[in-house]
UniProtKB/TrEMBL annotation:
Positions of the Leucine-rich repeat-containing N-terminal plant-type domain: 35-73
Positions of transmembrane segments: 988-1008
Family: Belongs to the RLP family.
Localization per Swiss-Prot or TrEMBL: Cell membrane
Keywords attached to this entry: Cell membrane, Glycoprotein, Leucine-rich repeat, Membrane, Receptor, Repeat, Signal, Transmembrane, Transmembrane helix
Name of the protein described by the UniProt record: Leucine-rich repeat-containing N-terminal plant-type domain-containing protein
Keyword match Signal: yes
Cleaved signal peptide residues: 1-30
Record-linked InterPro entries: Leu-rich_rpt, Leu-rich_rpt_typical-subtyp, LRR_dom_sf, LRR_N_plant-typ, RLP23-like
Length: 1050
């Protein structure tokens, strides 16, 4: 009975509560006043609202207080208007009825497109406590009327979209920040992101600290603020959120940030802070998010993470943070995001990381982490794991990848991981991106019997050591958009038709394996195969004919068929011509032949990259090549093209690389090519042709050229003076021509020059450029051989070649090349021919650490300058066939990287310095045809070279030469014969006397003493019998020769 009463009592109580709140609601939101409704309808009708879910429902026949987005008070006055993200457009001016809603307390028009000037009418809404106009589309100057809204608690005028649409759209200059906030003393939340304030740190900091004592949230991203941050911000003691990303702040990191006791979020990313981040910031107990990324010179490290901290997001990517991650990272138990990309962290990734079970996002890319990969099995919430660009090694099997149900992206590329690739990665039902490229994975793949992933979109296993049978199961992964298995050791015959079921496939790269590709389709489906394919790379796949199915690929933008055996003509017209919209075409190193098609320009209307290098094309270059206005890279090198270079080739205003080298082109170089360098041309390679005439002196003032290679032509004249305008020039090769000029001292502004080749021309004069103040600090290869240069080698010029002074010990050196598109695989590889060990060798790839000086076959004279002894990084030095005098300098032994030294055919004198034995890498030495004297040092590396290295030095002796060294005579050894002027060599006399005395001491007793003879013969017999027992007289067969001889002489 009591239970029943209790139940009834509870029911009645709940009814009472419900009735109370219903009455309260009615009392708060009264019936809309007609004046308010008319103002709202007028506001609606002034706008374009067809896409708005709220405004389309506003109509005259209903109570405006019931309209979606409207809140009224008890008297029917509108106090809140929320129209955020309603796709509303139109203009709001001062006469708009919106500004007559005098009781409005909250107004939110965010994320619309009011493309109109920021009107001053907002200043009439003096009852506002909340105003949000972020990303509403307003433009122009923020009116001073905003400062009249003295009741504001939250003001949000931020503009995110303006960063991507050419903003900023809003400015705060005429009425500066101080005027805007001077009356807003109750403001707690201020959002001014992407508004052009253009103030220095002290100006805006003091404006805020003097007017907004209650400020808790400050967000001023991308406001064009500059200078160091002012300590006056410390006065804002209630600040908990500080977001000042993407400004121009500079100077030391503001250490006073550690003084904010309530700080929960600090974002200072994308500035120019320097100095060291104090440990107090990282150990702040209330701090939840810290973003210091993209401050290139900002330093710091993680010494120790204290327990019980609140950090949830830690981002320091793109800074100068360094050191190791401490084991105490497991104290960050609430951490969900950690980004340490592009820093200088080293050492292993701590195993304690597996305790961060709340972790969702981890990015340690582009550091120097090393060692094995810890287990991530316990990180069940992880969605993205990014570790590319480190030195991690070992197997990745320590993690049970099937236990990470939320993993969407796994990026381990550019490490040294080895072992096999876990097959479970192909079965994950959440993994979309799997990038394991550029590692050392090996082995193959067996059959995967379990269900394959249906969501996997990206598989990149390129640049590994995977081998065996091609994993055909990848053709069953229906969701694939990107598949790259290039640069492995897979083998077998692969029918491309097996991939046609991959309807979403956009990129397919099977290049550089041991595969043979069957590109035929016997049973074509109704819909063409690969209809969404945009990028196809089949380089080095043993193709012998052009794939017919390519004619159906209407979206193909990138095609690489290089390094095959495809023969015949390239497709430009007829059924195989569906490439007019393709931007990248690489047909290099095949067996294509015939003349270039006259309409080849039609093929290249949208092309950016086009290469026919290394084929058998002949004939002339068609004039239609000029139609390719967008072509950035044109490579027709290594063919048999003839005729002149058509002027139409200059039509492209975007050309960056033009390579016509190793053909039989003739005529002059078109002047328009020089003018094209003003726009974009960075590489002009015309070497090994039959071009003649002069090099036009029309290089433009703003020349962008980086590589000019005209080697092995018939060019004459002089080095153009205007070439000095090419201040970005890195490679200049004019070798093997007929240029008649002096040393190009006028190139004193080309401070980026790395390679200078002038060999085999008619240059003359000295190379002393002291008057021109020339410095080439980056110069690493200089070849002046086979000219008529003379005078002394310039000490001052040699001293400016800093790149030859610094020893580089990096394990990997950069290649000298021209990048067409940064962060892409499209580049021009510079090459140069150098003389090494007496043989010409083409360096098809120039390492930035390779250095060479070749001044051979000129008329240089004088001593070898001491400045050469400072070129510690020099690999090759050739001063042969000159008129140099003086000794071989001992400082050459201080060049630790020297591999080849040729000083032959000069007039060098003196002895070979023993310091040359210190050259551990020296593999070629030629000191022949000089006037060297003395002994070649015994027991040194110098003696390991052949006789050819030292021949024709009259005073040189000792191994490996046949001439032996004698001790020099002295007058104290004996008297001289004054009549014959001959000296007695007592060394030989003493030897002869000793020999005669020794023989006499043995022979004379045997001749004159019978007893001695008998004992001698007995001793001799015993020795002979021991080795020749058959002659022993005890055998009684015959007498020995010894006995017979003894019998005769007794």
């Amino acid at each position: 009975m009591r239970n029943r009463i209790s139940l009834v009592s509870r029911f009645i109580f709940k009814l009472y509560i419900a009735a109370f709140f219903s009455m309260a609601a009615l009392s708060v939101s009264g019936q809309c006043q007609s004046s308010q409704q008319q103002l709202l309808l007028g506001f609606k009708n002034s706008l374009n609202f067809s896409l708005s879910e709220k405004l389309v429902k506003w109509n005259q026949g209903t109570d405006c207080c019931s309209w979606d987005g409207i809140t009224c008070d008890a008297s029917g006055q509108v106090i809140e208007l929320d129209l955020r993200n309603q796709s509303i457009s139109g203009e709001i001016n001062n006469s708009n009825g919106l500004f007559c809603l005098q009781h409005l307390q909250q107004l939110n028009l965010a994320y619309n497109t009011f493309i109109s000037e920021f009107t001053s009418g907002f200043g009439n809404l003096t009852s506002l406590s909340y105003l949000n106009l972020s990303n509403a589309g307003f433009t122009g100057q923020i009116p001073v009327g905003i400062s009249y809204l003295t009741k504001l608690v939250t003001l949000d005028l931020s503009q995110i979209s303006s960063l991507f649409m050419g903003g900023p759209f809003l400015k705060l200059k005429k009425s500066n920040l101080k005027m805007l906030v001077q009356n807003l003393t109750g403001l707690k939340n201020l959002y001014l992101d992407a508004i052009d304030i253009s103030a220095n740190g002290k100006e805006w900091s003091q404006a805020l600290s003097s007017s907004l004592p209650n400020l808790q949230v400050l967000s001023m991203r991308s406001c064009y603020l500059s200078g160091p941050l002012s300590p006056s911000l410390v006065k804002l003691k209630f600040l908990s959120i500080i977001h000042l990303d993407d400004n121009n702040f500079s100077g030391p990191f503001p250490k006073f940030m550690a003084e904010f006791q309530n700080l929960t979020s600090l974002h200072l990313a994308g500035n120019n802070f320097s100095g060291r981040v104090p440990e107090e910031i990282l150990q702040s107990p209330k701090l939840q998010t810290l973003d210091l990324s993209l401050n290139e010179f900002l330093q710091g490290s993680f010494q120790k993470f204290l327990p019980n901290v609140s950090l949830q997001s830690l981002v320091v990517s793109g800074t100068d943070f360094e050191g190791q991650i401490p084991e105490s990272i497991d104290n960050l138990g609430q951490l969900t995001r950690i980004e340490l990309a592009d820093c200088k962290f080293t050492g292993p990734i701590p195993k304690t990381l597996e305790k961060l079970t709340q972790l969702i996002y981890l990015d340690f890319s582009s550091n120097n982490f090393s060692g094995p990969l810890p287990s991530f099995t316990s990180l069940r919430n992880i969605t993205e794991l990014i570790l590319y660009g480190n030195q991690l090694n070992g197997s990745i099997l320590s993690t049970n990848w099937s236990s990470l149900p939320n993993l969407v992206r796994l990026d381990l590329q550019q490490n040294s991981f080895s072992g096999t690739v876990p097959p479970t990665l192909f079965q994950s039902q959440f993994l979309k991106i799997m990038d394991l490229a550029k590692n050392q994975f090996s082995g193959g793949f067996g059959e995967i019997k379990c269900e394959l992933s249906s969501v996997l979109e990206v598989i990149d296993l390129s640049h590994n050591g995977l081998e065996g049978k091609f994993p055909m199961f990848v053709s069953e992964i229906q969701g694939l958009n990107f598949l790259s298995l290039s640069w492995n050791k897979f083998s077998g015959l692969i029918p491309l038709s097996a991939f046609q079921k991959l309807k979403n496939l956009g990129t397919l790269d099977l290049s550089y394996n041991n595969l043979s590709i069957d590109s035929s389709f016997t049973n074509l489906p109704l819909l063409p195969p690969f209809r969404n394919l945009y990028r196809l790379n089949l380089a080095s796949c043993n193709l012998t004919k052009f794939p017919d199915f390519l004619k159906n690929l209407s979206f193909l933008g990138h095609l690489d068929l290089s390094n095959n055996q495809i023969h015949g003509q390239i497709p430009t017209s007829g059924p195989k011509s569906n490439f007019s919209k393709t931007t990248y075409l690489d047909y290099s190193n095949n067996n294509f032949s015939y003349d270039l098609p006259p309409d080849i320009g039609n093929l290249l209307q949208f092309a950016i990259f086009f290469s026919l290098s290394g084929n058998n094309f002949h004939g002339s270059i068609p004039k239609s090549i000029g139609i390719s206005y967008n072509l950035e890279v044109l490579d027709l090198s290594k063919n048999s093209l003839s005729g002149s270079i058509p002027k139409s080739i200059c039509n492209s205003s975007y050309r960056k690389v033009l390579d016509l080298s190793e053909n039989s082109l003739s005529g002059s170089i078109p002047k328009c090519l020089m003018m094209q360098m003003r726009e974009s041309l960075g590489v002009l390679n015309l070497k090994q042709n039959n071009l003649s005439g002069i090099i036009s002196d029309t290089f433009p003032e703003n020349c962008r050229l980086q590589t000019l290679d005209l080697n092995q032509n018939r060019l004459c004249g002089k080095v153009p003076k205007s070439l000095a305008n090419c201040r970005m020039l890195e490679v200049l090769d004019l070798g093997n021509n007929h240029i008649d000029d002096t040393f190009p001292c006028h190139l004193n502004s080309t401070s980026e020059l790395r390679v200078l080749v002038l060999q085999s021309n008619n240059f003359s004069g000295d190379i002393n450029c002291a008057a021109n103040n020339i410095t080439w600090p980056m110069l690493q290869i200089i070849d002046l051989a086979s000219n008529s240069f003379g005078g002394k080698l310039p000490q001052e010029l040699l001293m400016t070649w800093n790149a030859m002074k610094t020893e580089k010990d990096e394990p990997y050196s950069e290649l000298l090349r021209y990048e067409v598109l940064p962060l892409s695989d499209i580049y021009f590889q510079d090459s140069v021919t150098v003389t090494i060990k007496g043989l010409e060798l083409e360096l098809v790839k120039i390492l930035t650490i390779f250095t060479s000086i070749d001044f051979s076959s000129n008329k240089f004279e004088g001593h070898i300058p001491e400045a050469i002894g400072d070129l510690k990084a020099l690999h090759l030095l050739n001063l042969s066939n000159n008129a140099l005098t003086g000794p071989v300098p001992s400082f050459l032994g201080n060049l630790p990287e020297l591999e080849s030294l040729d000083l032959s055919s000069n007039h060098l004198t003196g002895q070979i310095p023993v310091q040359l034995a210190n050259l551990n890498f020296l593999s070629f030495l030629n000191l022949s045809n000089n006037e060297l004297t003395g002994r070649i040092a015994l027991g040194t590396q110098i003696q390991s070279f052949t006789e050819d290295s030292f021949r024709n030095n009259a005073g040189l002796c000792g191994r490996p030469l046949e001439v032996q060294c004698d001790s020099p005579p002295t007058s104290k050894d004996g008297p001289s014969d004054s009549q014959t002027d001959k000296h007695v060599n007592w060394k030989f006399v003493s030897v002869e006397i000793g020999f005669v005395c020794g023989i006499g001491a043995v022979i004379l007793p045997l001749m004159f003493c019978k007893g001695w003879r008998i004992r001698y013969y007995k001793c001799t017999d015993r020795v002979l019998y021991k080795f020749f027992s058959k002659f022993d007289p005890r055998n009684r067969t015959r007498r020995t020769i010894s006995h017979w001889t003894r019998g005769r002489r007794l």
